[in-house]
Amino acid sequence: MTTAIHDFDDFFRKAEPRLRRAYGGRIAPHRVGDAVAAALEFAWKNWDRVAVMEYPVPYLFRVGLSKSRRRKQGRLPASPPADMAHVEPALISSMQQLPRRQREVVWLVEACEWTPTETAEALGLSLSAVRTHRDRGLERLRHHLGVNTNA
After folding, report:
1. Within this chain, do residues 38 and 61 fall inside the same structural domain, yes or no?
2. What are the pLDDT digits (tens) for 92-120?
3. CB–CB of 61/143 below 8 Å?
4. Which residues lie closer than 8 Å to 30 by C-beta, 6 or more apart?
5. Which superkingdom does the taxonomy of this entry point to (predicted)?
6. How far from chain centre, in Å, is Cα 122?
7. pTM
8. Is residue 43 within a helix (H) or strand (E), and if so which, with residue range?
9. Which is it for the CA torsion 12, 13, 16, 22, positive or negative?
10. I need a labelling partner for 37 at 20 to 30 A (CA). Which of 26, 45, 110, 139 fits?
């Protein structure tokens, strides 16, 4: 029993900040804590299943979304979160202009540093769809921000 608790504690320390940041790009900021708590409560209650998953965090990401009482899609914050103070402020408004799937994929892959495979698992997309949404989203962001990559 001690081993399982230790393993869960280690998992919790790694998964909690990843989930919190990922939800920050998907739901309203005041609902993030509830989604994280719901996901990690599910992980604790189902640790025997979660512990052997290849991609448990993306799975729990979906669990937290589905267990959130209100499924309204939130907006990204008006300014970068404190741990992302180095982010160009215009990027946030440009992100809000992206179509939902592009915004979700760009957020998870670029801001949260999830792998394309984790992102595909979390959003229920194919790997090629994740790559397409990422590429198109980044191209739109470059256009909105006036970034020329041909230089």
Report:
1. yes
2. 788 888 999 999 999 999 989 999 999 99
3. no
4. none
5. Bacteria
6. 8
7. 0.72
8. helix 32-45
9. negative
10. 110
